[in-house]
């Protein structure tokens, strides 16, 4: 009897006003995309996509975003583990600091990077004088800017998974004599693999779409720092039709990523069974 009541509550239809407001929200998000599809020059789309500038920008975007994702894994996973497992004073402040770039205007992040890693920046001056490393207006600078804005997506995803993980498995491994490093590699990481995949893809997608911090810190030089988002921005002023086509490519990639990761975020939903 109770299960029947719970099932009926689960499958109860929401109020009509809720459905109407939800439909308006969906329309609000869909209309800009439909506008691009409507105005797209489909007859010339392939021509715009195969132009040398577009292909160069796409290759550079894929290359830099891949390296940015690697850097996010190398530094972001240990950071997430530290935030989730190591108690220390100021943990919340450190977490806020490491995820601040998620909410900062990208241009502000680029300005901050410039005055930190530029040739006369807080650290950049020493990189230049001691090692001859100059990051602004280089391809490496693009990777740095993308990593700055993308890594937090990996960090918060992995940290959440670590906090929800059943730690008794790790305790059992250590009881059997496994070292902390072995436990981390062979127990912890496999247990949070879905979060690693989701966080990595999110970081890659964010890096691929980064524009503001990149143009501020690395500039906009074709073949060196001009990524796909920057090519879209420039094309909007000189060739709007090409900008629409390139924008649709970026949207298609991002949309595919989000659809593919839906089950990673929310889990697969099973239909409730009706019972008397």
Task: Identify the notable features of this structure and list them briefly.
disordered C terminus; about 280 residues; single chain; mainly alpha; globular; MetI-like fold; 14 helices
Describe this structure in words.
Helix content is 75%, strand content 0%. Helix 2 runs antiparallel to helix 14 (240-266) and helix 13 (228-238) runs antiparallel to helix 14 (240-266). The chain has helices spanning 2-10, 16-39, 45-49, 52-85, 91-98, 106-117, 124-131, 139-164, 168-175, 180-191, 193-208, 212-217, 228-238, 240-266. With 276 residues, it is mainly α. The protein has one domain (52-266): MetI-like (MetI-like fold, Orthogonal Bundle), CATH 1.10.3720.
Series of secondary-structure elements, N-terminal to C-terminal: HHHHHHHHHHHHHH
Radius of gyration: 23 Å
C-alpha geometry: globular
Number of helices: 14
What's this entry about, in short?
The chain has 276 residues and is mainly alpha-helical. Helix content is 75%, strand content 0%.
Which helices and strands appear, and what pairs or packs with what?
Layout: H1 2-10, H2 16-39, H3 45-49, H4 52-85, H5 91-98, H6 106-117, H7 124-131, H8 139-164, H9 168-175, H10 180-191, H11 193-208, H12 212-217, H13 228-238, H14 240-266
């Amino acid at each position: 009897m109770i299960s029947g009541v719970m099932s009926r509550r689960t499958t109860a239809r929401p109020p009509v006003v809720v459905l109407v407001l939800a439909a308006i929200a969906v329309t609000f998000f869909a209309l800009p995309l439909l506008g691009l599809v409507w105005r797209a020059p489909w007859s010339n789309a392939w021509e715009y996509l195969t132009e040398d500038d577009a292909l160069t920008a796409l290759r550079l975007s894929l290359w830099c975003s891949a390296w940015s994702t690697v850097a996010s894994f190398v530094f972001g996973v240990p950071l997430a583990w530290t935030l989730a497992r190591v108690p220390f004073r100021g943990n919340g402040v450190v977490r806020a600091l490491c995820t601040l770039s998620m909410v900062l205007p990208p241009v502000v992040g680029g300005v901050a990077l410039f005055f930190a890693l530029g040739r006369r920046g807080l650290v950049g001056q020493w990189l230049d004088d001691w090692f001859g490393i100059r990051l602004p207006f280089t391809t490496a600078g693009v990777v740095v800017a993308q990593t700055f804005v993308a890594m937090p997506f990996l960090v918060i995803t992995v940290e959440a998974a670590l906090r929800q993980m059943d730690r008794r498995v790790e305790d059992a491994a250590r009881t059997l004599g496994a070292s902390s490093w072995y436990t981390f590699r062979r127990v912890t990481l496999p247990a949070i693999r879905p979060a690693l995949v989701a966080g990595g893809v999110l970081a890659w997608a964010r890096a691929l779409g980064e524009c503001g911090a990149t143009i501020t810190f690395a500039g906009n030089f074709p073949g060196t720092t001009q990524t796909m988002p920057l090519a879209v921005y420039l094309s909007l002023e000189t060739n709007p039709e090409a900008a629409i086509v390139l924008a649709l490519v970026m949207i298609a990639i991002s949309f595919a990523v989000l659809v593919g990761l839906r089950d990673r975020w929310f889990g697969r939903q099973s239909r409730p069974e009706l019972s008397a």
